[in-house]
Amino acid sequence: MNNDNKSVNVEEAPIKSATLSTEMNKLYRNSNANPTLKFNLALAHGSNLNDSYVSKRYGINSYVSGDIIYSSLSALVKDAKLSADEIIDKAGNSVAAKIYFVVITDDGYEIKSNTVSIDLVDCDHSQVVDPTADKETAGNITEPTYCEICESKFNAKITKGDDVRYYNNLDEAAKDAQKSENEGCTLYPLYNKNGYGGQLVLKKKNGDGGQLVITEGNFTLKYAVRTAFSRPIIINGKAKLTVTGRCAVTAFENQDAFIVRGGDVTFDGLATGSNVTINGGNVTMAANNINCLTINGGNVSISSGGFAEIVTTVSDKVIADYIDPGFWVQDRGTKEWIDIYSLNKATASSTNGLTVRLCPMQIIKPIDTVYYTNGYYPDGIPSLQINAEPWYSNEVDAKVAYQWIAIDENGYETVIEGATDRKLSLENLTTGRYYCRLTYSNATTAGVSMKSDVVTATITECEHSGGEATCTKKAKCEICGAEYGEPLGHDYVVIKIVEPDYRNEGYSVFECTRCKDSYIGNRVPVKPIPDVEEIAVEKTTYNEVDISWKNISGVDGYYVECYVGNQWKQINCSADGDRVAAKLSGLSAGLKYKVRIAAYAGSFTAKFRCFYVDTVPSPVWNINTVKATDETVRISWSRNARADGYKVEWYINNQWSVKTVTGNNNISAVIDGLCAGTRYKVRVSAYKGDLYSPYTYGYIDTLPSKVTGITQTVTSSSFTLKWDKNESADGYTVQYYADGKWNEKTLVGNKKTTVTIGSLKGYKTYKVRIKAYKGELESTFDDIYITTAPTKVSGLKVKSAVDSKAVVIWNADTNADGYNVEYYIGGRWLEKTITDNKTAMAVLGGLTPYITYKVRVRAYKDNLYGDYSYTTVTAVLSPVTNIKVVSAKSNSITVKWGKNASADGYKVEIYKGGKWVKKTLKGSTNATVTIGGLRAGSVYKVRIASYKGANTSTYTYANVKTAK
Ligand SMILES: [Zn+2]
Ligand SMILES: [Zn+2]
Ligand SMILES: [Zn+2]
Taking every annotated instance into account, which residue ranges of this chain make up the domain Fibronectin type-III (predicted)? Predict the structure, then answer.
């Protein structure tokens, strides 16, 4: 058949995908926690999927489960879970479980999910919570011991030394405990995971029917928890076992908790209501509380304990060792405790099933029957006593009668009167034989009578002998044990002297040369730790102070504390040889700190030594010159509020001069004794007490010294100043105020000590200053007022100069007081003073004509004299005057004229013959001349001039007429 061409109807699967995940990806193989793993199964499916008839199966590694029918999709998804045990079981030995789910619909569609991998590992049980761990004396613990990692709850543990191993079940643990390498270990049944009661579930094993069988080993089985077994623990073989623990150990349904068939077993301290059956072996029992002890064989020794029932089938053998009065049995019917007191032939019976075959009743004291009246009896005078003790003494006493019987040498018995107690004092007895009879009178035991052993009591005095006295004890009689004689007493000598130190008191050790007994005596008190001494401040800065003190040998150290910030701050210190040093740091400048030091040794501390240290003040700053003169400089600086004052120093004459300023508010000082115009180095240190801050340096400069020796001269237009040379100056500045401003002239170098200022006005007062300067500094100065001399007179000119006189004039100077007029005559200046300023003229006399004279005039005012104005004057001879004809003759004429004393003579000329005829007359007084040779009645022209040397005055003409 070929269907290739047939159309195919492809049906869509109802489930599209199944996605599997889980939040747990690790399981512990060795855990018994068996958690349930919830898987998240997410299904994607079409809308037409019938909600019912969906199932799943799962696969773990090679294992695939059968189908499981679910009623709905949501149930399938919600219940996707597997138990850890199942996963581990199905995964076999794999290191991981590969898990997937297959989701199947009822009509055959199925889809497989992805695979989830879960690691299968062994837990190292490294985080076990063990409530029994610190319960060495056992308890009644009802909390599980479990591992925090794998959550396994342990059924058992084995400890050996510090080694602890935990087990999921007791069988495995018991198996390990029996191994020879675990000899001496302790096996603990633990409160297990089955909850209340802590029933130990013993895994069934082939042939053992679930019983725990211990056949070997040598270990302790210790109960720290309330424990119940479903099956007995069987002990046989070569096992050496101690069973202990103050907890109830029971088996269910009245089975035996323990069956001993062999081995060496000790039951010690079981608090149990359980049954123990002993069929063989060697069993020791003490301090147990056992419900029913069944003894069918073996060797049993019971020293104490309680039993509700003892059943034995082997009579004498078992009970023969019951000699301890602390041993008791409870009546199972009445629940009352019953004393067992039985001589070897006596019996005691209970109302309900108690069977005691044999019980001893013996006289237990004294051990021997010899009584020494002077013997050693520490518990008082001995008595004969029997060992049985009534349980409820009040009640039993009322029902029991004691009789003490003496037997004489012939065997006759006599009841000792008044001896009705369990004890019979030997004090009043004589040597003989005695026994006690006990008779019950209560309802159940009425008439039961028991007879104790017969003992012989020998009453005698001891003749002490033997034994050796020691230092402290008398000799002890070897016969009766009494002490006799006297002790030797100790022979102490000092064998060691321990000096006291700072920690321990001193003492001497005394030792007895005989017995070596020693004691400590001659105690000397602990040496007091001395106060620290020689405290010294080694170094101080603004923020640190190094201190040291003398080391005290033998102490452990020192408490060094500095009070900083309102609290004591601990300071480290270190010893170096003889000294101990400590550094106080983090301090503030210029402060006082309290420090205390005490040595300590062991728990002893010496008294604190307190003292103060100061820190160095901060340096000053801002050293400024406030004011300088030529000899002093006032400086100032910033205030240091923590200082006591300041030390100011300046370097002069190759050394520092010092000045101390007290009080921190005083922040300036005058440095004096300085030279003018000089630069000095200064330094300032703030001090506090004897601590000085580092210096702050600066320079000061004195002013050049004031200019001295100033002299002034003035002219009409200038003044000239002179002064003394100033060695401290670089030069000079001369200032004067003119034209509304200060004008200045600077002289460089100190050698030139004069200056002239010109172009000034006369009569004017100028303010002038001379300052010496050095660099930029100027000396002090005084204002000088300089008044210029009167203005130079003007308009000086010669008004007239004839013969011996000249008149000079000038412009009047209204500012002047007057004038000096001088002309140089006769080799000197001839002065003429005019004492008012209006007379601006002067007549100069005594001149010689034709001689030129220098003339000068100056104005004066007060004592100031203006510049001279110069001119010259040259007088001429005045023309001849007053020519008169004295006589006229016809041929001569005599003429006379006024004499001129300034003249040397006269030149007289007459015009005659067409020419001037000259005649010279010498001498000024010859002012008359007669001219002859004239014609009568003729008029002649005459001219006369006076002469001086070669100079001649102008001619004066006259006409003269001769007589007829
Ligand atoms: Zn674990
Ligand atoms: Zn003695
Ligand atoms: Zn001694």
Answer: 616-706, 789-878, 879-964
Task: Tell how far the Cα of 509 is from the centroid of ligand 3, in angstroms.
Answer: 14
Q: Ligand 2 center to residue 461 CA distance, Å?
A: 8
More confident site: 702 or 44: 702
pLDDT in tens, 789-809: 999 999 999 999 999 999 999
Residue in this structure with the two tokens 């008439």, named with its chain if needed: 447
Query: What homologous superfamily is domain 536-614 in, according to CATH?
Result: Immunoglobulins (2.60.40.10)
CATH class of 797-874: mainly beta
CA of 522 to the centre of ligand 3 (A): 18
Select the CATH number that applies to the domain covering 363-460 from these four: 2.60.40.10, 2.60.40.2700, 3.30.70.60, 3.10.25.10: 2.60.40.2700
CATH class of segment(s) 711-787:
mainly beta
Q: How far is the CA of 464 from the centre of ligand 2 (A)?
A: 3
Rounded-to-integer distance, Cα 177 and Cα 350, Å: 42
SS (HEC) of 9-37: CCCCCCEEEEEEEECCCEEECCCCCCCEE
In this structure, which topology does domain 624-701 adopt according to CATH? Answer: Immunoglobulin-like (2.60.40)
Tell me the C-alpha distance between 166 and 188, whole Å.
9
Task: Identify which ligand lies nearest to the alpha carbon of 125.
Answer: 1
Cα–ligand 2 centroid distance for 465 (angstroms): 6
For residue 199, list its beta bridge partners. Answer: 228
What is the CB neighbour count within 10 angstroms for residue 514?
Answer: 13
Q: What is the pLDDT of residues 296-308, one digit of tens each?
A: 778 877 766 777 6
Q: How far is the CA of 482 from the centre of ligand 2 (A)?
A: 5
Residues having C-beta closer than 5 Å to ion ligand 1: 123, 125, 147, 149-150
**Residue 378 Cα to ligand 3 middle (Å):** 24
**Distance between CA atoms of residues 821 and 100, nearest Å:** 154
State the pLDDT at residue 581: 94
- Near ion ligand 2, which residues have CB within 5 Å? 462, 464, 477, 479-480
Among the bound ligands, the one closest to the CA of 519: 3
> What CATH code would you report for 884-961?
2.60.40.10
Residue range 15-121 forms a domain whose CATH class is: mainly beta
